[in-house]
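Slide 14.
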Amino acid sequence: MPYFYDLNAALLSTTAFLITPPFTQLNTPYPATAYLKGFLNTKNISTYQADLGIEVILALYSQAGLADLFNRVKLKQSELSENARRMLALQTHYIYTIDGVISFLQGKNPTLAHLICQDGYLPRAERFKQLADLSWAFGSMGTQDKAKHLATLYLEDLADLITECVDEHFGLSRYAERLGRSAYSFDELYIHLQQDYTYIDQLLIELLSAKMLALQPKMVAISVPFPGNLYTAFRCGQWIKQQHPTCKVVMGGGFANTELRSLSDERVFEFFDFITLDDGETPIENLLEHIEGKRPVELLKRCFTLIDGKVEYINGSLNRDYKQSEVGTPDYSDLLLDQYISAIEVVNPMHRMWSDGRWNKLTMAHGCYWGKCTFCDISLDYIKLYEPVAAQMLCDRMEEMIQQTGQHGFHFVDEAAPPALMRALALEIIRRKLTVTWWTNIRFEKNFTRDLCQLLKASGCIAVSGGLEVASDRLLELIQKGVTVAQVARVTRNFTEAGIMVHAYLMYGFPTQTAQETIDSLEMVRQMFEAGILQSGFWHQFALTAHSPVGMNPTQFKINIEPGCSGTFANNDILFTDPVGVDHDAFSFGLKKSLLNYMHGIGFDFPLQDWFEVKVPRTKIPKEYIVNALNEDEIHSVKPSAKVVWLGNKPDLEISTKTKRGETWESAILTFYAIKDTLSIKVEVPQGKWVMGILDKIRVDASETLTFQQVKDDYEAAGLEDFELFWYNKPFNKLANYGLLTL
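Slide 15: predicted structure.
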């Protein structure tokens, strides 16, 4: 029962068919095919793209899909768990409610939220038992959010039923992920691919078959960003090579870029003709030329293929990679943009942004401008080769994507967005009067001043995420993060005070990390949440990868690589032993449980050791460490070259005359009107008149942006004295909140 789709926009005999196989995200398309389609548009190459993940989900979570599902479940009635028997008994309720729930989660039926929130509408199974634990969350959640969460639990109940009774590999945002994780050998995955189709396979191939019949492409390019869509990529490739043998099948994406760089298993090419590495634009363009007989195989770029029965890596192309200014605007046409599902799986604020809402994906800069973190794959091109995109071009692309998708939300998927480019982009957004909402990943570096954070907020930035990692200055130095805990605290405060949500990536288990450092790191995190300067966070255990400095130089980090950590298929994750000997797994539950409480403003007085089921050391971090760091006087030395910008409205200037004891004098009152409040500042008349003039010169849409030195020169040219004393006085300093920013 494939979900209905429309191929009217597709060209007959499409040159390239771009696929994202199941599953990545429910709420928004993974952007790889949109990026590639945008590039191929610049070459006038006909393409069609499909997110088969959302299409399979919509086929499955429908009245016809659930009817088929429950018929399959009945065949195993004698083997069912109590939870599955309950759901089978309530099958009529599931089938009756499913279309309405999906429509609600697509944003098409908002009034259904009232019914969903009432007892007696949604059938409830095992997942709903967690509601008692989450009762505190609903006090701050509106009806729509509560209904989204309840509807998500309902979908997860059905997912559990599918996993138990029909397809053990199923997950709402991943499929057969275990088969793709640390798969040094291709054996297990290959064996599964020789077996009969799973239930999800059947839905997938039915959808794929219809599209291939309509499109008749010369090439199918399959994007594999994660282990959770690797198996289905192979299923797609397998079917295409069997049923459409003249069509060439290509795999690319994040999984290939990191895991398959030393591929040597010939069996992989029973499913694919080529596997490309790193940026896909030039490799795909070269492959299309090869398919058309215009380029010999030895002149392809960065790809594996099978030659005379042996896997060969080909990189003989003389064509350079395209600059970011040349790759075009991501093109989301063909995708079912109005049919994605916004879910609230967990109450973690940042994770919610990943799963709730439709985001246009863009990149401010290719690679990472820092490129030093020792846990990161900095030796690979996607990190190593840094190239920013001009702010004007970014805004052009944003406007084009708004026109194309109707969506004003943007997720910049940078490794770490550069502060200078963020500043330029924010100014350009404000100058163009674009109403957009955006968020991105950053480094918590000192360039994120109070004023820069205020500017980012004014441009529509609502959230940032960044790596605090192990909140220990010793380990941050070993990681070469380039920050200290105190610096991170001050930066997160600047963002928080500007009204921008902050999410911290947190790490435990880094080489040489002790149990004491883990607990001390947790104490740092506790204090930051208690101070209100973090709103979201997530702990993950350190994983060693082959392309990171730690993986390439293990002895430098005092670890031992375990044997058998390489093979003929995926080679990236490396198993290791740390002579320090800490059982980091034992900390996992306590770290995550405490963080969940801190994110919701509770548990700050709970002794740290009580979060854990094993004995842990007491923290050695002073109770006021973060508060003292925030209270430290920072040197606010403004560089003469710093840009001065006025974002606010023109103030009123009122000059009044007063006489006392025969003396008469004038004073000026400047009244500034902001959206929420009003500020009045009393100054001398010459200074008031100068302020009125300079604000006009430094307004955000002025033809020239003045520097701090030029503003000072203008002040002194007006015959006024003591510029610094005037500029930094307390009343005038309040204007940062009204739009006077030094950047």
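Speaker note: The longest strand covers residues 663-673.
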